[in-house]
Design a protein that fits this description.
This protein is mainly α. The protein has a domain of 163 residues. 46% of the residues lie in helices and 3% in strands. It contains eight helices and two strands. Strands 1-2 form a two-stranded antiparallel ribbon. A hairpin with a 2-residue loop joins strand 1 and strand 2. The longest helix is centred in the first third of the chain and has 24 residues.
Length: 295
């Protein structure tokens, strides 16, 4: 059985080979008839047609999504400010918070263009605190000068006015001592006012020591501020004395001022140039001595 198939396949191969060579020498129609007759037994319905190869379509590449640009918003045209002709500019007037001229605001005026309903939101304007030198207006000078001497005398007298008051009795001595020390610091450490500086400083330190020896341990420390000379000054935190010691402390402080007055007068006698200047400063210290004894 197997040998017969092999023989049959070999016969068929020889036949096909010969048929193919003959077909090369035949016309296309004649060759088709010979092929049909040779394969008549295997393919009675004719030689099967070969199917055409399947051509794969290329993959579809997806295009990226198109991003729409935001619409362009046109800017409104810029209106040019009218130009002020040369020479018509207004010169700004400097504002002084202590100016009593036409620029001063009344109690009913609202600063900054505020409305009437905003009145409860407004706070009073705080005065600018000046240095002791600027507030008292004591010029810098190592030589005796009537203007400098007058400024020192006025500063000594004005300091007592800052410290006195019915509600300030416990703090009076420490406040005045603090002001005398501040005034002494405005004077030069060399020159003809140096001796006056030392006398005022020693008196202030003695008064502060007096307060510390009689201080009230439960009273709060306070700071005062007020106008002296050219502006507003503020004291350091002050110490109160015990209420039962107020009168005794005031009298002891007056004795300290009397000693300072005497030292200034003696210094005036030792120099003709300092005679008038030191006598004037001694007079201011003596005036406050009298006020302390009656406080």
């Amino acid at each position: 059985m197997r040998a017969g198939n092999i023989f049959r396949f070999a016969h068929l191969s020889v036949f096909v080979t010969g048929l193919g060579l003959g077909a090369l020498l035949m016309s296309p129609a004649h060759a088709q008839d010979v092929i049909d007759e040779g394969f008549g037994d295997e393919f009675p319905d004719g030689f099967p047609e070969r199917e055409p190869p399947v051509v794969e379509e290329p993959p579809v590449v997806e295009e990226p999504p198109v991003v729409e640009e935001p619409p362009v918003v046109e800017q409104p045209p810029v209106m040019e400010e009218p130009q002020t002709p040369p020479g018509d500019e207004e010169t700004p007037r400097p504002v002084d918070e202590y100016d009593d001229a036409e620029g001063q605001e009344s109690e009913n005026d609202l600063p900054g263009g505020a409305r009437e309903g905003d009145k409860q939101l407004l706070k009073p304007l705080r005065p600018r605190i000046l240095s002791d030198r600027d507030a008292y207006g004591i010029p810098r000078s190592r030589l005796i000068d009537p203007e400098v001497t007058g400024s020192i005398g006025q500063a000594i007298e004005a300091s007592y006015g800052l410290c006195e008051g019915p509600e300030k009795k416990e703090y009076l001595v420490d406040c005045y001592a603090e002001r005398l020390l501040a005034i002494s610091r405005t004077l030069p450490k060399t020159g003809e006012y140096n001796e006056a500086r030392v006398i005022l400083r020693e008196a202030a330190l003695e008064m502060r020591a007096l307060v510390q020896a009689n201080k009230d341990p439960v009273a709060p420390r306070v700071r005062y501020q007020g106008v002296v000379g050219n502006g507003t000054v503020r004291t350091r935190p002050l110490t109160a004395v015990r209420k039962d010691r107020i009168k005794a402390v005031n009298l002891a402080a007056a004795d300290i001022l009397e000693e300072a007055e005497t030292k200034l007068l003696r210094s005036a006698e030792r120099s003709d140039r300092r005679l008038i200047a030191y006598a004037e400063m001694a007079k201011a210290v003596g005036s406050n001595k009298t006020l302390l004894r009656s406080a």
